[in-house]
Structure formats: structure tokens, C-alpha cells
Amino acid sequence: MRIVLVGPPGAGKGTQAAYLAENLAIPHISTGDLFRANISQGTDLGREAKSYMDAGELVPDEVTIGMAKERMSRPDATRGFLLDGFPRNLSQAESLDAMLKSEGMTLDAVLDLEVPEDEVVKRIAGRRICRNDSSHVFHVTYKAPKTEGVCDVCGGDLYQRDDDSEETVRKRLEVYHGQTEPIIDYYRGQGLVVTISALGPVTEVTGRAMEALGKKG
Fold first, then answer.
1. Which residues participate in AMP binding (predicted)?
2. pLDDT tens-digit profile of 9-43?
3. Does the annotation list 20 as a binding residue?
4. What would the mean pLDDT of 163-168 be, rounded to a whole number?
């Protein structure tokens, strides 16, 4: 299957993408991974992307699409792929369609993870990170430390990242509503969208997603 995964920040896209890709035996292709891989390997696209990033500018769509096209052409993607974080806007969605059409391919489904806005804010703004080791992550509601402000693992101080503040989260949601949500209507017009609730345990959400995708397969 060729799938695009969409949803607001805090919907658990990265987690679900990993589970779904494993269950469907297709590669998980995330824009973050593409950028890191191309830059670290010093590819032409990676160098071009880095020049924009170093200048504090947005990387042009054609560079992102070029990276995605190269990744989707690899042998492990012949059975399909799951795109996470791309397309991010209507222009990228239209370019992706054109690229797939030129390769004789089409998308099979667009999986929309639905989460109420207040829950998104609660999920992200409640995160606390250990200053000693950023892999030690807690949550004031869902995974509270035994002692407030203290890491259970190493005793380090827990803090809230600046980009996890409620104000920043709401700004990110505004960007999502303005730029990314329109692609859902675009793909809905093609009959590709399946929307599921992303509330509840991770395994339950994965089960809902697999059932919804099964009906599209």
C-alpha cells in the first residue's frame, strides 16, 4: 500500500507510522529522516537543503520532493510506503500526485489521525524532559515522575522545552490548520481519506488504523 499519514502535532504520527510500517511490511518515510540522511551523506539534494537551512530559509518543495522520489524508488518501496510529514501543504500534495503519475503509481489511502485540539495541547504541554538525558521523558498527567520535577531514572531536573509551551503548541496548530489541513479536503475529493480517532492506547489506535486501511485495500 502507498499511504500518506496526516494529523496535528501531538497526534502520535511517528509512533503510529512505525507500527503501521512494520505491520504492513513497507518502509516508513519521514521528511525528518530524509533530510538527516541526505545531509549526513552529502548528497546533492542534502547540500542544497543544508544551504537553505543554514540561511534560516525554508527548503523549497522541489528539494523535498526530490528526496522523497529517490527514497520511493528504492527496492524496499516496491510493495508500497508510508509517508510521514510529507506532503505538508497543498502544493506538495499536487507535486506528489504528479510525480506518482509520472511513475505510473497512485496513492491507496490517506490516514487522518484525529485528536481534539485541547487534547493535543494537554499531550504536548504536559511533557517534561530530563536535563541529563533527553531520552528520559515524562508527562505530568500520563507518566508523572514519583517526585515532581525529578527524573525517576537518574535524579536529574525535569523541564519543559520552549517549543512544548501551550502558546507554542497553539501556534503550531494554527500552522497545521492553515497549511496541512487543506490537503485532507484535497485527498477527500479523490476518495482516499480514512479518518480514525487517535485517542486511547497506542495498540488500540494501531488496530483502528489497520482495520480502516484494510477496507481501503
1. 31, 36, 57-59, 85-88, 92, 161, 172
2. 999 999 999 999 999 999 999 988 999 999 999 99
3. no
4. 92
Q: Which three cell numbers stand for residue 39?
A: 545531509
Q: Which residues are catalytically annotated?
A: 13, 88, 127, 161, 172
Structural domain includes residue 50: no
Q: Is 66 part of a structural domain of the chain? A: no
Residue-number span of the structural domain to which 13 is assigned? 2-27+74-216
Residue 15 marked in a binding site:
yes
Domain count along the chain: 1
At 87-130, the pLDDT tens digits run: 989 999 999 999 899 888 999 999 999 999 999 999 999 999 99
CATH number of the domain at 160, please: 3.40.50.300
Q: Is residue 150 annotated as involved in ligand binding?
A: no
The answer to whether the annotation marks 35 as part of a ligand binding site is no
- Pick left, alpha or beta for residue 82 (phi over 0 → left; psi -120 to 50 → alpha; otherwise beta): beta
The model's pTM: 0.88
Within a domain: 204: yes
Quick check: is 53 in a domain? no
